[in-house]
Amino acid sequence: MLFPTTIAGSLPKPEWLAEPNMLWAPWKSKGDELARAKRDATLLAVKLQEDAGIDIVTEGEQARQHFVHGFLEKIEGIDFAHKVEMGIRNDRYKAMVPQVVAPLQLRARVHAEEARVARAHTKRKLKFTLPGPMTIIDTIADRYYGDRVKMAFAFADLLNAEAKALEADGVDLIQFDEPAFNVYTDEVNDWGIRALERSAQGLKCATAVHICYGYGIKANTDWKETLGAQWRQYEQIFPAIDASAIQQVAIECRNSKVPLDLLALLKGKIVQAGVIDVASDTVETAEDVVKVIDAVSKFVPKSNIIATTNCGMAPMRRDIAEAKLMALGAGTALARETLG
C-alpha cells in the first residue's frame, strides 16, 4: 500500500487526565486512579487513530507528562525533587528540569504498561516513541558526569535496553525523537549519530528518527521567524543520517520552510513526511495533504513515503487534533487514488 499513515507520536490528553492545551501538564489524579486514567486515555488514543484510518498507530504518549521526562522517571541517578532552571535547545526557552546526580541506571521497565495495553487492543502496526540521547541531555541538568558526550552515551545504553524490551512487547517501529539535531548540527556529526545508533543497536524491528523544529508553541514559532526564508539546517546532517543504520526519518513538510529537495539526500531511507501542520489550528483538507505528498514524491520514491504529522500534537486542542487526524486519513486515501 502506498503512503501508509502514522503520527509523530503524541496526542492531546483528555481533560480528565491532565490540564488541557499545555506541555508539562499536571495530572488530575494520582496513584491507582491515575494509572487507570492513563490506561483509558491510551485506549482512546488508539481508537481515535483507527477511526481516522491511521495505519501505524501510537499510544499517543498518554502516560507521559513530557516526551523526555516521561522516560526519565524510572531512572536511578536523577533527582526530580530539586529541579533547576535550564535553557533548552540552545536557550530557545527556559524550563525547570531534574538533575543527574549519580550513575544512570534503569530502575525498572519504563513504558511496559502502555505498550502492552496498546498492543493488546489494536491489530495495526504499533509505533512507540522514545527521546533520543542528544535531546535528553539537552533537557536535563548534569551534576555528575561533567561531560555531555559521556552522559549521552549512558542514556543511549538505557534507551537501548528499553527499546529491546518494547520490541519484545510487540512494537513494530521504534522512533527516537531528536529535535536537538537541528540545533547542534556539528555535534550531530561528531557524536550524535553514533549515540543514536547505540540506542537502536541490535533491534530487529523498524527504527526511525524524528527531527523537527519543535512543537507549535510560541517559543518555537518565534524562533522559526528568525531562520529566514529557507531552513537548511538539515543539509548539514542528512548525509550522516543517510549513512546511519536508522531506517526511517520523520521530517516536517507542511507549511515548512525546509526545502524539499533536501529530502533527496535521504536516498537510502523511508521518509515520514509531515503533511499536517501542528503549529496551526487550521484543519487541512484532503487536497492539502495530497499536494504535500505530491511535492515530496518529486524527491522521494512514492514507495518510501509515509504520511505523518509535522510534530507531536500534545499541546493542541483535542477537537482540532482529532479533525487533523481525520484529514490525514482522508488525504492519504485520496493520494492513493490520484497519485498511485
Summary, kept brief:
This protein has helices at residues 31-52, 69-72, 112-120, 133-137, 148-168, 185-200, 218-224, 238-242, 286-296, 318-339, and strands spanning 56-57, 75-88, 93-106, 125-131, 141-142, 173-177, 206-210, 248-252, 270-276, 305-309. It is an alpha/beta fold.
Give the averaged pLDDT, no decimals. 94
CATH topology: TIM Barrel
Strand order of the largest sheet: 1-4-6-7-8-9-10
Taking pLDDT < 50 over at least 5 consecutive residues as the criterion, the unreliable ranges are none
* Cα end-to-end separation: 9 Å
CATH architecture: Alpha-Beta Barrel
Broad structural category: alpha/beta
The tally of strands reads 10
Write down the domain tally.
1
